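Anyone up for a design puzzle?
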């Protein structure tokens, strides 16, 4: 390429600048600089803070607490304001901070919005009544919010109604008449540049939607399903089920294949062999008493196209996903889910929901559905430059410690318990849910349902700004954790797996601690440990055994014995036994590690394998019967229980070879 004489490339501006920061109190700001400075230079730098109302007076500049230094130089500092920001004068907007020789940057509202001025107890959502319908939303930094009403789920012109600001950061519209069945969206705007005033949003508290990116519908509550069976956590035997996987195969014998109603059907079996039960009847024959469903809260997908997803990109937490319903614009998703839950309850099964409160499918600025559009920056953990923390690995983290975010989680869980009859919850990436919120969940849900089941994943998928809720955090807190230590001892770590106790006898200590209920490891009680060797994540155990044991010494008969041994470890250990649906007859996903979107061909349960490996199924069924018949296998006590398992070598004084425990 020929350049004209004298041409010089345009160089980037490398001068120091403000990365960003937060408004944490009306009189205190957190500022992060790109280039660290000497502490003695702070006063002479002449920091300036500009708000929509004008310049604010900076009274002090000091190092921020915590990790604010690079050597002897400072990059994070606190600015004190006197007077502070007037919270009564209007929305708390981003501030512009600059200094002599420092390019400006934005400070975003953060903990200042956690103050009592931005909290409320009034019901949120849309509520139809005989005389009037009210809609209330939380939008603490908005300058204006509109309620947009539609006659239909798609198309048409909106009737717009300005909402009125209330105390606590909420906005209210009260309209005459019973608006049940009316479709609605919301619009919000304000001085924060992250608002998109022309974008129509869905109420986070919506109970029904046309699609995850469509419109909400004003609904009335309907009666809950029949109550579930009454038994404690010590009696739970769990099977993890994806609704579609369990019923979509042509040989499932299910009529409503892949739908809520499909799992409610009874009398299903292989078409060519009535003796081989499938779907709901299979789980009853196996003897499990708790069905854990992969996410059924409305998630990001094209419901009408029949796309396959696990459901871990949630959008509307109070709405059943329409992909599993016979219709999407009416009450089908609500009514059919309740019918399914009722059918499971009447057959003696509890229902546990897999819930994803650690993140959402929103990725600002382009992909907004509800939270970020109404309250920019409030519901997500932000870094100093305004970007999201990403300990979920999906683009954001829900700020569970924020008062109104925590309230949303609690309100949502209570809705599923009281209106849908849900018996428990599995918390995805529970490490990203702060411990105080988990403790409140346990306390408040048990006040409604004392026998509620609560457990979760005690890890994150990346760095986070909070102290994670990890293994051991659950001690005495009222919830259990997935025991990956026991899992890894049984089948090896996520790498080669060649160190598996199953194969080599390695990890005997970890295996024994897990088998004892982890009371000598991280738990106060065996009921704080969910024992498993396989779940929806990663390869199935059968696929893993095929991958790590391909040599002639590990033929199919040997791998079957290994699979049976793993099932015995899970079903006989102290704690909460957990099976992945189909594990009991060597479920395969053709070696897939992460099948979240690989479709039915990979994910569906192949019921013909139950017939092919009937003896393996019967082995697991009989172990379930053994566990249910013998209280010794279901000890809930920890510590010095007189019925802690005895080991041949340590307790009975017998000499055993190294691979034996």
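Challenge accepted. My sequence:
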């Amino acid at each position: 390429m020929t350049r004209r004489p004298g041409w010089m490339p345009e160089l980037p501006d490398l001068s120091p600048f403000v990365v960003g920061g937060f408004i944490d109190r009306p009189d205190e700001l957190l500022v992060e600089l790109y280039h660290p400075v000497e502490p003695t230079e702070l006063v002479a730098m002449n920091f300036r803070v500009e708000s929509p109302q004008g310049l604010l007076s900076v009274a002090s500049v000091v190092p921020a607490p915590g990790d604010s230094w690079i050597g002897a130089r400072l990059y994070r500092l606190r600015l004190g304001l006197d007077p502070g920001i007037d919270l009564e004068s209007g929305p708390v907007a981003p501030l512009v901070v600059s200094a002599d020789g420092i390019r400006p940057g934005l400070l975003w509202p953060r903990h200042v919005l956690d103050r009592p001025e931005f909290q409320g107890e009034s019901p949120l959502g849309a509520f139809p009544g005989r005389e009037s319908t009210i809609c209330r939303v939380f939008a603490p930094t908005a300058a204006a919010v509109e309620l947009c009403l539609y006659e239909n789920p798609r198309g048409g012109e909106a009737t717009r109604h300005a909402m009125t600001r209330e105390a606590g950061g909420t906005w209210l519209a009260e309209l005459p008449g019973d608006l049940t069945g009316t479709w609605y969206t919301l619009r919000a705007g304000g001085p924060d540049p992250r608002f998109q005033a022309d974008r129509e949003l869905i109420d986070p508290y919506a109970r029904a939607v046309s699609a995850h990116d469509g419109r909400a519908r004003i609904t009335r509550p309907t009666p809950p399903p029949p109550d579930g069976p009454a038994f404690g956590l010590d009696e739970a035997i769990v099977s993890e089920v994806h609704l579609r996987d369990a019923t979509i195969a042509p040989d499932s014998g299910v009529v409503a294949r892949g739908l809520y109603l499909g799992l409610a059907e009874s009398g299903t079996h292989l078409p060519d062999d009535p003796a081989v039960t499938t779907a709901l009847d299979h789980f009853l024959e196996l003897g499990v008493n708790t069905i854990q469903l992969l996410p059924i809260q409305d998630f990001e997908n094209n419901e009408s196209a029949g796309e396959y997803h696990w459901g871990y990109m949630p959008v509307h937490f109070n709405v059943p996903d329409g992909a599993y319903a016979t219709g999407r614009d009416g009450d089908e998703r609500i009514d059919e889910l309740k019918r399914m839950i009722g059918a499971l309850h009447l057959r003696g099964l509890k229902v546990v929901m897999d819930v994803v409160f650690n993140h959402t499918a929103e990725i600002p600025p382009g992909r907004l559905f509800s939270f970020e559009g109404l309250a920019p920056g409030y519901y997500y953990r932000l870094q100093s430059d305004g970007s999201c923390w990403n300990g979920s690995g999906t683009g954001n983290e829900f700020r569970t410690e924020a008062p109104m975010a925590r309230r949303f989680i609690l309100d949502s869980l209570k809705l599923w318990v009281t209106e849908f009859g849900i018996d428990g919850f599995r918390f995805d990436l529970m490490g990203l849910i702060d411990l105080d919120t988990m403790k409140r969940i346990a306390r408040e849900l048990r006040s409604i349902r004392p026998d509620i089941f609560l457990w979760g994943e005690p890890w994150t998928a990346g760095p986070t700004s909070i102290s994670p809720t990890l293994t051991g955090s659950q001690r005495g807190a009222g919830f259990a954790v997935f025991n990956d230590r026991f899992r890894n001892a049984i089948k090896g770590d996520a790498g080669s797996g060649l160190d598996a106790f199953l194969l080599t006898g390695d990890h005997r200590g970890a295996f024994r601690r897990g088998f004892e209920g982890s009371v000598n490891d991280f738990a106060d009680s065996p009921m704080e440990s969910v024992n498993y060797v396989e779940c929806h994540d990663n390869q199935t155990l059968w696929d893993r055994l095929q991958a790590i044991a391909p040599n002639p010494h590990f033929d199919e008969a040997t791998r079957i014995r290994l699979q049976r041994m793993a099932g015995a470890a899970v079903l006989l250990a102290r704690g909460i036994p957990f099976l992945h649906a189909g594990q009991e007859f060597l479920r395969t996903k053709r070696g897939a590690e992460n099948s979240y979107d690989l479709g039915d061909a990979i994910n569906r349960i192949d019921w013909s394998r139950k017939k092919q490996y009937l003896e393996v199924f019967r082995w697991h069924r009989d172990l379930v019967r053994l566990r249910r018949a013998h209280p010794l296998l279901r000890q809930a006590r920890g510590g010095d229980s007189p019925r802690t398992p005895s080991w041949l070598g340590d307790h009975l004084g017998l000499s055993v070879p190294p691979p034996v425990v």
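A detail worth pointing out: The chain has three domains: 18-114, 116-217, 233-634.
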